[in-house]
Specification:
Length: 259
């Protein structure tokens, strides 16, 4: 019988085996010329192009620019969304005014707003940062609002009975109780921010991972296209693994709480 600890330790090995198997199939399919090299270059060719992009600094410049845009927008959208979500949960007037706008904006296709943001803010970083913030703010508002509304009244009554004012209650009881759900919402917003950034760069240009990828596609540089796609996938995987590690280490108490 396999213990839970040994089973969990086998998960990374199984994941690595799956990825290696996929790469082998990819390489074999391309080498067998089942598809034209233009459509599916061998992984070895993609890896060679990836190494060249790393060596000449092109990848580092593009990746740093895209991540700067994505996380600037994420920070702006998260901070604004948390503040609005908390205010909506604790103030009926704010909820009455903001709820219809959230209901209208949340399901809307954010990518459709790219031409408007380009028209208003240009093709450089500002338009992409604001678009990312616009794409991420709605799930953050909804997650924060739900977390604040579900805080146990018992905790609030206990704090007020000990002399906590409204500001102290807000900062030391309600907001800490919302941290786990806010972080979970942030985990959802991160891939949204990355997708929005890469897509905006593909459409509007202005440098970054998406702009280089679409530029390479126009000139049929397939190894570069696939190399950048691989990097995008790895970035998302690394960020999510980092956030899961942070959540289990610093927010593990939430699993046993009743907030």
């Amino acid at each position: 019988m396999i213990s839970p600890r040994s089973a969990s330790s086998q998960v990374p090995w199984r994941s690595a085996a799956s990825v290696i198997g996929l790469l082998i199939v990819w390489e074999a399919t391309a080498r067998a010329h089942l598809t034209p090299v233009l459509f599916l270059p061998p992984f070895s060719m993609v890896a060679e192009q990836l190494w060249r992009s790393i060596a000449d600094g092109t990848l580092a410049g593009d990746l740093s620019l895209s991540l700067q845009r994505a996380f600037s927008g994420l920070l702006l959208g998260t901070v604004t969304g948390v503040v609005l979500g908390l205010l909506m949960a604790r103030n009926r007037l704010v909820e009455w005014l903001a709820d219809p706008l959230v209901a209208l904006g949340f399901p809307s296709p954010k990518i459709a707003f790219i031409p408007i943001f380009i028209l208003w803010f240009g093709i450089e970083s500002l338009s992409k940062i604001l678009l990312v913030a616009f794409a991420c703010i709605f799930p953050v508002i909804i997650g924060t609002y739900s977390a604040a509304r579900s805080v146990s009244r018992l905790f609030m009554w206990s704090a007020m009975s000990l002399g906590s004012g409204r500001a102290s209650l807000f900062l030391h009881v309600i907001l800490p109780a919302c941290y786990p759900r806010i972080f979970t919402t942030f985990r959802i917003a991160v891939p949204v921010g990355l997708i929005t950034t890469f897509t905006a760069e593909m459409v509007a240009g202005g440098g970054g991972m998406g702009a280089t990828l679409i530029y390479s596609q126009r000139f049929f540089e397939s190894p570069t296209v696939f190399a950048y796609i691989v990097v995008m996938l790895c970035v998302g995987l690394v960020l999510d693994a980092t956030m899961r590690k942070f959540q289990s280490r610093f927010l593990g108490w939430a699993e046993e709480s009743n907030f």
